[in-house]
Write a structure and sequence with these properties.
Hypothetical protein af1432; mainly alpha; 0% strand; binds magnesium ion
Amino acid sequence: MEPLAAYAVTESVSRGRRHAEPAPQGRGEFQRDRDRIIHSTAFRRLEYKTQVFINHEGDLFRTRLTHSLEVAQLSRSMARALRLNEDLAEAVALAHDLGHTPFGHAGQDVLDTCMKAHGGFEHNLQSLRIVDILEERYAGFDGLNLMYETREGILKHCSPANARLLGELGQRFLESARPSLEAQIVNLADEIAYNNHDVDDGLRSELLTLEQLDAVDIFAQCRREAEAQWPGLEGRRLVHETIRRMIDAMARDLVASTRANIASAGVETLDDIHRAPVLAAYSEDLSPKLRELKTFLYDQLYRHERVAKTIDEARRIVADLFAAYMADPGLLPLRHRARAAADKPRTVADYIAGMTDRYAVKEHRQLCGGGEFR
Ligand code: MG
């Protein structure tokens, strides 16, 4: 295997863990981070959390878990192509959505509204909170005690107020410094994954049609290429041959254009990466095509009336649950009650955020007399 680039994150330049631990045997520090994330409770819950389609809608749609695995695959491939730390990229990718509430963005938005007077709720910050505080797996510390650079990669954005509370990790938001290139790559791998799998899931659910997608430049172009190579191809195979070409075009463009940005910025060390502008980016040729695809998905899929209907119901469930636990913290499981005595709103938000879609529906039915979902 090729050696890592001089500006890749390595154990020797890492700022390490918050609690000192003996070095791992037979694996690297960032491999250990990945392994800790995979063994966490929050990671297993991703299986039953919504990406776009509510978990019960069908077994073939993406969930947060399969989305995270796709992000990890793309991140690893692109990190390797750029000679970056693949283990770090993988760890960040697998952890990037751990803090998502049930019911996707609808759940996060309503929980944020409920928490307005208590510091708000933000799923990205919640991912960090899970790996830093909420996972209960080790005798010697709370959370997973991950490497600094893994935590830095998980925290994609942060308000100045929250950054000030986070100490060393928040510093870069106050200084407008960049995270590692590994983190920058994962951020865009996330986008490549959802833009493509949402097209796939949109077609599978029949909320989108091939005819509609033909109006989107990058889809039409990749479809033409697939049909030129395989005349007469149709159905699922045509969809898949088109989407795999889109994924490939985006990933290759990102690697080539990031490589060019690295060269022209003249970066040589990890410190240079922190000080340079964001270097992981698509080419000027591809960027507008991606914007077009995103706008299309936003208008035609995320705001589709069938999706909107489930979103309304999801909002009601989360808001009702929040009100119920706030009114009577005795409804929380015993192990959360001591924390609730110290900070009731945050404990309730943590508890709700940790729920899977189906658990939230079940709790809602029990506590608030809600019926079946939809
Ligand atoms: Mg994601």
